[in-house]
DNA sequence: CCAAAAGTGTTCAGACTACACCCATGT
DNA sequence: ACATGGGTGTAGTCTGAACACTTTTGG
């Protein structure tokens, strides 16, 4: 067990965010390259200390916005990681969150503070700082079950999308194939989508109907 | 919004435990009567600051043991409550846990520090300190869903129990009646119990077979 | 003999699974 | 013309829900 440097007199609180998107046919997380010594060149989920006059939820929203610029996406508390030796800089307890953002040509802005900001597929993660491997693993598990009984995919898809897009998103995250006919039947029966008049154009195949979610709020609905 | 007294320079961490049992045909929680000023004579779930060299999980276990003496029961992290003004004594973030303990003639020991320790039915709670009403409400919700897809009732029942005891526990917590035949069929089909040779004796009705859980570890199993 | 909980099967409806072919477009 | 994903229905199986009477004990 590493020695804890009591930089703070009591345990203090940080928030870390596992930011997911689906990109290039893979579930990916946003990681930041560390420049500080014990974790030099390792990667970590974005995070930071909770400020004295800021709620933990707000800290999570702030960090998410700082790194991605997005604000109105699904963001939920995941779990609190409180091992004594999880942070070599001091006694820091991390309240972890996870967020789902659509892959809409988001520009990642790095800063001098970090060695880079990049998406990494969850099935091929680099070496991670702190206990972030555990945190991300936990977030992936949670995301998988959450997809099955809520409508939160809305936060991974663009405003308008095809049923094929939606099914592919499920297949990528759940890592299994779904039956097209059963999937469409199920989803349409739930009445959580409304069809637009539009269809996809310019693709090398038959145009597909575009849908949008009726509600962009998380709701519990048995989906699969 | 009340003014925060910066007793600590940063936010510090406490653990609060919602301790459940089923007693007198009701789901009950263990509460402590406060003696400190802004919450004088109000009740609260047991809790305390996390010590600098103690993990948050260990703090929860410690507090549970201090108040009840029990150790090997189901104890799980619930949620972290991080509103800025949740504690008038300072910036304290609470990692809430919930525990399930069997109602086996547990003796509650009060201390000079508190005005009393008592069980209270969750459907008739007194006025609660801090945000503990929210925390307990959250714990009850979680317990209800958890009962449906895990075996955690084991931690509310004695070592040996009848199927009637088990069904009653479900009915009390879920607050709805269950069909006796369907319940027994389902539970026995899951193979999570083993029948003992024994039967209840001395009751004013037909003796019932006594069962025990095969495993006393939390497992995900579709129960209802 | 009465009260109280234990114990025990069947039927019906709805949900889930598996499965194959034609269609509209771009190249 | 062909490659690509879009779009559609049915039959069989499984699961969950509803439902009533007999048994064994203590009082």
UniProtKB/TrEMBL annotation, chains A, B:
Nudix hydrolase domain segment(s): 10-142
InterPro entries in UniProt: NUDIX_hydrolase-like_dom_sf (IPR015797), NUDIX_hydrolase_dom (IPR000086), WH-like_DNA-bd_sf (IPR036388), WH_DNA-bd_sf (IPR036390), WHD_NrtR (IPR054105)
CDD domains: NUDIX_NadM_like
Entries under Pfam families matching the protein: NUDIX, WHD_NrtR
PANTHER family: ADP-RIBOSE PYROPHOSPHATASE, SLR1690 PROTEIN
Name the record gives this protein: Nudix hydrolase domain-containing protein
Organism encoding this protein: Candidatus Falkowbacteria bacterium RIFOXYA2_FULL_47_19
């Amino acid at each position: 067990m590493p020695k804890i440097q009591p930089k703070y007199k009591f345990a203090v609180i940080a928030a870390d965010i596992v930011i997911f998107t689906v990109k290039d046919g893979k579930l990916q997380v946003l990681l930041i390259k560390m420049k500080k010594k014990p974790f030099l060149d390792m990667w970590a989920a974005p995070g930071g200390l909770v400020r004295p006059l800021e709620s933990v939820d707000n800290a999570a929203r702030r960090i998410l916005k700082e790194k991605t610029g997005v604000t109105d996406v699904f963001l939920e508390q995941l779990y609190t990681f409180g091992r004594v030796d999880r942070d070599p800089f001091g006694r820091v307890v991390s309240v972890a969150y996870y967020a789902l953002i659509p892959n809409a040509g988001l520009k990642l802005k790095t800063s001098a503070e970090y060695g880079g900001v990049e998406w990494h597929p969850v099935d091929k993660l680099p070496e991670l700082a702190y206990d972030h491997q555990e945190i991300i693993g936990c977030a992936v598990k949670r995301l998988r079950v959450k997809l099955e009984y809520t409508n939160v995919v809305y936060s991974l898809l663009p405003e308008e999308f095809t049923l094929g897009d939606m099914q592919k998103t499920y297949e990528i995250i759940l890592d299994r194939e779904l039956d097209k006919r059963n999937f469409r039947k199920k989803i349409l029966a739930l009445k959580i989508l409304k069809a637009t008049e539009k269809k996809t154009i310019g693709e090398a195949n038959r145009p597909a109907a575009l849908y949008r979610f009726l509600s962009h709020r998380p709701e519990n609905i048995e989906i699969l």
